[in-house]
Specification:
The protein has 3 domains: 144 residues, 3-Layer(aba) Sandwich (Rossmann fold); 131 residues, no CATH class; 70 residues, Orthogonal Bundle (Rna Polymerase Sigma Factor, Chain: A), CATH 1.10.1740.10. It has 16 helices and 11 strands. Helix 6 runs parallel beside helix 10, helix 6 crosses helix 14 and helix 14 runs parallel beside helix 16. The N and C termini lie far apart (53 Å). Bound molecules: NADP nicotinamide-adenine-dinucleotide phosphate.
Length: 383
């Protein structure tokens, strides 16, 4: 029986994780759960799973949860408590599924404590890739990606990386793949969140629509698989059936395919190196044909190019674009800026922010704060 700490239990990845746990209650036990403010669904989750700990990031939400519970679950609040449940000696596996830079500290705590980290929070690697990978190496932690593209590469690499020339991440193009750039100016948050294939949280849905999600994934892949930037390629694939590919010098390409449902990826991270059922139907290739592939349009999806630029710059640039993107996406979701202003704000933040090498967590956090201040000022000027 493996004890799981589930960070981000009320989110899209959190719910899919619980669905896999429900199917294998003989193998997995929920040890701890966390959320931000959403305490009402946490009441039901705590009654159902009886975790030892429930952590709300928000203190008021923690009080509400505590008052609503009549079981032995200990309710805690704040970032330190998140780190404690992520590194607790009774925890075996940590699902890091908090959205945004705020998920970094708890994922890093799990890495330092030598846990199996099932990493959905790509921001941990975008912000602190070197520190995170060092922590994994030094502690003997297991790092299993929970992004369909990176899981695909991870699965392909099970046969080794001899002769590897490049990897290719697939990108659906989100809801605006075939929308003309001039029509993007007036799109609404709900239209941007209406992803054709994946059911995800609102922030990552907007990132998919701008393709910043793919940009962040490029950076994530750089750290996860120790590649050079020019070994990472992106191809548009609207059906989201081919999850990603690895190219070899003998002309071979290995790809991983499946229906677009995160339960496959999550169950693999939980059962690795074995495989268990996930509730996802087997792929029917004939009914999904033809599978299409296109070269990305870097003019329309400017965020993708900005992420590649940041990766090549290195140092603080990656954290800067991530912070600016979080601010800009939040402003777009709150109807403060237009969709096409998202890349403008990121680009201007990158230009204005001080570019440095970042060797400590404090420096990473300071850079994140500085970039947010710049991006917020830019949002205010756009309003
Ligand atoms: N969804 C997908 O299919 C998918 C695929 C690959 C990777 N990912 C990555 O997985 C992560 C989670 O994505 P998601 O789509 O599951 O997001 P989501 O549905 O928005 O859920 C986010 C979770 O994080 C919690 N949270 C939000 N802000 C927080 C804060 N400041 N402190 C602590 N907890 C906080 C939320 O709690 P409340 O409910 O209380 O707000 C919720 O439990 C992201 O990094 C995303 O890029 C997602």
């Amino acid at each position: 029986m493996k004890n799981i700490t589930l960070l981000g239990a009320t989110g899209s990845i959190g719910k899919s994780t619980l669905s896999v746990v429900d199917q294998h209650s003989d193998k997995f036990n929920i040890f701890a759960l966390s959320a931000n403010t959403n305490w009402q669904p946490m009441v039901d989750l705590c009654h159902k799973y009886q975790p030892k700990y429930a952590v709300m990031m928000d203190q008021d939400a923690a009080s509400q949860l505590q008052n609503a519970l009549d079981n032995d679950t200990q309710v805690l609040s704040g970032e330190q408590a998140l780190c404690e449940i992520a590194s607790h000696e009774q925890t075996d596996y940590v699902m890091a599924a908090i959205v945004g830079a705020t998920g970094m500290s708890s994922a890093l705590a799990a890495a330092k404590a030598g846990k199996r980290i099932m990493l959905a929070n790509k921001e941990s690697l975008v912000l602190a890739g070197d520190i995170f990978m060092d922590a994994v190496k030094n502690s003997g932690a297991e790092l299993i990606p929970v992004d369909s593209e990176h899981s695909a590469i991870f699965q392909c690499l099970q046969s080794g990386r001899s002769g590897l020339t490049k990897i290719q991440l697939t990108a659906s193009g989100g809801p605006f793949l075939h929308t003309a750039i001039n029509e993007l100016q007036s799109v609404t948050p709900d239209e941007a969140c209406a992803h054709p294939n994946w059911n995800m949280g609102r922030k990552i849905s907007v990132d998919s629509a701008t393709m910043m999600n793919k940009g962040l994934e490029v950076i994530e892949a750089f750290y996860l698989f120790a590649l050079k930037p020019d070994q990472i390629d992106v191809v548009m694939h609207p059906q989201s059936i081919v999850h990603s590919s690895v190219y070899y010098e003998d002309g071979s390409t290995l790809s991983q395919l499946g229906n677009p449902d995160m339960r496959s990826v999550i169950s693999y991270a939980m059962s690795y190196p074995e495989r268990i059922s996930s509730g996802v139907e087997a792929l029917d290739l004939a009914s999904n044909s033809p599978l299409e592939f296109y070269t990305p349009d870097f003019d329309k999806f400017a965020c993708l190019g900005l992420a590649f630029d940041a990766l090549k710059q290195g140092g603080s640039a990656m954290g800067t674009i991530n912070a600016a993107n979080e601010v800009a996406v939040d402003a777009f979701l709150n109807h403060q800026i237009k969709f096409l202003e998202i890349p403008n704000i990121i680009e201007q933040t990158l230009t204005q922010a001080k570019h440095t090498t970042l060797s400590s967590l404090d420096a990473i956090i300071a850079n994140d704060r500085q970039a947010r201040v710049i991006a917020l000022e830019l949002v205010d000027r756009h309003v």
